[in-house]
Each structure stands twice: as structure tokens, then as C-alpha cells.
């Protein structure tokens, strides 16, 4: 991993009533090209600005990811869906019924998605709408999706969960760690909707019964 020149900032944000001042500061860091660690409804995640190539590369370095890795666009609601993904009526109904929630949906990407974010073999992108107050506050203030990846370090099977440990391990590799309390031990459930028929490709948080045909 390539280190930042300075230590990361560390914000303790209330999980139910996020402090507006800290949310504003966090979004300023994102807009300035920073990489952050933030809580979701499944686990802690890495996030950066959707258009920032350098920040995306730093996220790859933290997790040692190859070019085939599916990043996700984390959205505040379904209003962003049509901008970044091609969605049929049947797929939209499934997504609407499951969001907000701990699900990532694999969909065909539109031309609005920067090419470097799209799976190079399948031209797809993952999208999700988290049920987490801090994540929602960040997204509402930012006004666009976050480029995101679950915080699972190389060699680990499960995501990191302790904000103080995250700070200790990544304080020279990210620009901000948000302590939002405990938010889970599992990644999202990933559902492939590229061909309209739901296919669960990774079971994590969330009930998969609604996607089993």
C-alpha cells in the first residue's frame, strides 16, 4: 500500500443523528480527492469521488484489487439508477422492493459511468442504496453517488469492524476514518440483474428469498 503524506482525520459521527458540521467536512474531503472509510448498513467501506481517478487507484492499492474487481456506486436513492445503469421495469421493481438495504445490484452500465469504473469484460456496474443514516447524510450532502468498496484488507475473509483498529491500520493510507459505531460483519448480498432474472452471486447481509425464482 502507498501511504498518504499525512495522517488521516478521525471523526466520531452519531449513528442516528449525524452532526451536520462533520458531514460537511467529510464531503469536502471527498470533493478534494480524498479516500474515506465510512459505515454502511452491512460493513465499513472505502469511498471516493466518482470522477477521481487517483482516489480510485488508492482504493485499489489499499485492497490490492485487480482491474476486474466490481466497484459499487453507492446512491442516496433510486433517482440515480437510470443515469448510471440500464434497468428494465421488472428489475426496477425488484430493486425498489429491496432498497434501501444491504444489497448490491449488478446492472449494465450506461455511458455516464466512467470507463475505468466498469467491469472491462462485462460492461457492468454495481449499484446500491444503503440503509444507514451516516451514509445517507454523506450522499445527500455530496449530491451524487460515492464510488465504493467494502473494507476487506488483503488476506482477510471479513470486513474490518472496529473504527479504532481501522484508524491504526489505515491512518497513512486514507484521508478520513468515520467512526459510526458498529455496523455489521458481513458484506452486502450481490444480485446480478444484467439479464433481468435475479441471480445471487454472493450471499451476505439481507434476505435472498425475494430473489429466488
Mind explaining what this structure looks like?
This protein has helices at 20-31, 53-63, 81-84, 89-98, 133-142, 163-170, and strands spanning 9-12, 36-39, 44-49, 72-74, 85-86, 103-109, 124-128, 146-150, 176-179, 189-192, 199-202. With 213 residues, it is an alpha/beta fold. The protein has one domain (19-153, 186-207): Alpha-Beta Complex (DHBP synthase). Helix 1 packs across helix 5. The longest helix is centred in the N-terminal third of the chain and has 12 residues, at 20-31. 44% of the residues are buried.
List the helices and strands and how they pair.
Layout: E1 9-12, H1 20-31, E2 36-39, E3 44-49, H2 53-63, E4 72-74, H3 81-84, E5 85-86, H4 89-98, E6 103-109, E7 124-128, H5 133-142, E8 146-150, H6 163-170, E9 176-179, E10 189-192, E11 199-202
Parallel strand pairs: 1-9, 2-9, 4-7, 6-10
Antiparallel strand pairs: 2-3, 3-8, 4-8, 5-6, 6-7, 10-11
Helix pairs in contact: 1-5
In brief:
With 213 residues, this protein is of the alpha/beta class. 26% of the residues lie in helices and 23% in strands.
Amino acid at each position: 500500500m502507498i501511504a498518504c503524506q499525512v495522517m488521516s482525520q478521525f471523526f466520531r459521527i452519531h449513528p442516528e443523528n449525524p452532526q451536520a458540521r462533520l458531514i460537511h467536512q467529510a464531503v469536502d474531503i471527498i470533493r478534494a480527492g480524498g479516500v474515506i472509510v465510512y459505515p454502511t448498513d452491512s460493513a465499513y467501506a472505502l469511498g471516493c469521488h466518482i470522477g477521481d481517478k487517483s482516489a480510485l487507484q488508492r482504493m485499489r492499492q489499499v485492497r490490492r484489487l485487480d482491474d476486474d474487481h466490481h466497484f459499487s456506486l453507492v446512491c442516496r436513492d433510486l433517482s440515480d439508477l437510470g443515469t448510471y445503469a440500464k434497468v428494465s421495469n421488472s428489475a426496477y421493481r425488484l430493486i425498489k422492493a429491496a432498497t434501501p438495504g444491504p444489497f448490491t445490484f449488478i446492472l449494465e452500465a450506461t455511458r455516464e459511468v466512467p470507463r475505468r469504473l466498469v467491469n472491462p469484460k462485462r460492461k457492468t456496474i454495481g449499484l446500491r442504496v444503503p440503509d444507514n443514516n451516516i451514509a445517507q447524510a454523506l450522499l445527500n450532502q455530496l449530491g451524487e453517488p460515492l464510488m465504493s468498496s467494502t473494507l476487506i484488507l488483503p488476506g482477510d475473509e471479513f470486513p474490518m469492524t472496529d473504527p479504532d483498529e481501522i484508524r491504526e491500520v489505515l491512518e497513512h493510507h486514507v484521508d478520513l476514518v468515520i467512526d459510526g459505531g458498529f455496523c455489521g460483519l458481513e458484506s452486502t448480498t450481490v444480485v446480478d440483474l444484467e439479464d433481468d432474472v435475479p441471480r445471487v452471486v454472493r450471499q451476505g447481509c439481507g434476505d435472498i428469498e425475494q430473489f429466488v425464482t
